[in-house]
Design goal:
This protein has about 450 residues and is of the alpha/beta class. The chain has eleven helices and nine strands. The chain has a domain of about 220 residues: TIM Barrel (Alpha-Beta Barrel), CATH 3.20.20.370.
Length: about 450
């Protein structure tokens, strides 16, 4: 008989299992959490893989014969030497040209720091295009029917016209003066008025005959050329004369130091031409650092020492203008006190009849002399010859004489012409040999 199937469909009945014993509880296993994704969604860029380059082929080694340079021929080597010498010669020529140009400018061109305000080139003011067009549009066209009105010429400020008989006229010469914008300062600068005289330049003076001992020797004369320092060409001409001429240099002139050095090297004596206040001041200005009667004693002494420092090799002083200053005793005493300390003499140019330089020099016992003749008070050849011969007469009558001239071309020509006649009758000596301490 077939066996009965149980519910499970198995033929045999499953034996009963014993009751399960209590098993220990299993510990819960922590599940591994997946790694958090980075905040950057874009993955990092992959580094480019460097491609391997094929190995370079080894170049074939050059042979010894290939390494050797071709030998130069004698002609090529001679050409190279010739070109080298040519280059060196050209360099030497350029260097010599630069040196010559530098020496020329050093001798003949005035530095800008030493130039006066009139010599410095002033640039014209810039005008805009609008202003130019406006000026052109508003310009009034002249009417043919309207007669032209003559306008009086206005005198420029700062340059007053000198009165007749009071100031020397400046030498016009043959040289043309360019406009300030185009003028090149080389060996000549703009010349101020040379001298201003007050009254009769020879009035009020009495020449006394000296002691017979003075007249025993040969008469002597000193020729002083004032206002040196504005024209080096004239300095060169006077230095070419065979005579011991004394040069009196202005302290405010642009070529003062060059003129002093050249005169000193030539063996000529040098003086300071000291600017002083004239009666015509301020209409006539004696120049920069001039001594004025309105100065205090300290200002007067400072100005005098500045002027002395500007002219090297100076052995004495004479006044430039100064008709008013030489009439004030107290200030002349102060000036002569400094001159005595410095061991300098003084020559009075006698630009005024009221000068008291002589009694002041006698009081302070400094070597003193005074002008006997002005050569070129009148710019005329015949008048200059007359004054030169007048100086010779004074020297023969009184044993000594002092004549003063200025660096005019006509003055140079007349002195040069009469130089043999002067030397026949008198000896030309420096001014320091004419001055004396008054008793």
């Amino acid at each position: 008989m077939p066996e009965k199937k149980n519910k499970a469909g198995k033929g045999k009945a499953s034996p009963k299992k014993p009751a399960d014993k209590k098993q220990p509880a299993k510990k819960p296993v922590a599940k591994k959490q997946p790694a958090k994704k980075s905040a950057d969604k874009n993955p990092p860029a992959k580094k480019p893989v460097a491609r391997k380059q094929p190995p370079k082929k080894a170049e074939p080694k050059k042979t010894v014969a290939a390494r050797k340079k071709p030998k130069k021929t004698k002609k090529q080597s001679m050409d190279m030497e010739r070109n080298l010498y040519k280059g060196l010669f050209a360099i030497m020529v350029l260097i010599s040209i630069v040196v010559v140009i530098g020496l020329y400018f050093k001798e003949n061109v005035v530095p800008y720091s030493e130039q006066t305000a009139d010599q410095q080139v002033q640039k014209p003011p810039k005008v805009s295009k609008k202003a130019q067009t406006r000026k052109h549009d508003t310009a009034r066209k002249p009417d043919i029917s309207e007669p032209e009105k003559s306008k009086p010429e206005k005198s420029k400020p700062g340059k007053p016209e000198p009165e007749a008989g009071k100031a020397d006229t400046q030498e016009s010469g043959t040289e043309t003066r360019e406009s300030p914008e185009r003028k090149r300062i080389t060996q000549r600068a703009e010349v101020p008025p040379y001298e201003v005289y007050s009254g009769d330049i020879d009035g009020g003076r009495r020449l006394t005959r000296p002691d017979p001992a003075v007249l025993q020797g040969r008469p002597v004369a000193a020729i002083i050329i004032d206002d040196i320092g504005f024209d080096l060409k004239m300095v060169k001409k006077f230095l070419s004369l065979d005579a011991k001429i004394t040069f009196s240099i202005l302290p405010n002139s642009p070529f003062r130091k060059k003129a002093a050095e050249r005169a000193y090297a030539n063996g000529n004596e040098i003086m300071l031409h000291l600017p002083m206040e004239p009666f015509e001041y301020p209409k006539v200005n004696p120049g920069k650092n001039a001594l004025l009667t309105s100065m205090t004693p300290d200002e007067l002494l400072i100005g005098l020492r500045k002027s002395l420092d500007e002219v090297p090799y100076a052995k004495g002083v004479n006044n430039h203008m100064g008709s008013k200053m030489t009439s004030v005793s107290t200030q002349m005493y102060q000036i002569f006190t400094i001159l005595k300390k410095e061991g300098l003499f003084f020559v009075d140019s006698r630009t005024s009849m009221t000068t008291i330089a002589r009694p002041s020099a006698r009081l302070l016992k400094i070597p003193f002399g005074e002008r006997d003749v002005f050569f070129d008070h009148v710019q005329d050849g015949e008048e200059i010859v007359k004054e030169i011969r007048h100086m010779i007469t004074i020297a023969k009558d009184h044993g000594r004489a002092i004549g003063i001239g200025h660096p005019h071309r006509i003055t140079f020509e007349m002195i040069k012409e009469l130089l043999p006649e002067i030397k026949e009758q008198v000896d030309i000596v420096p001014a320091s040999q004419i001055v004396e301490i008054l008793g």
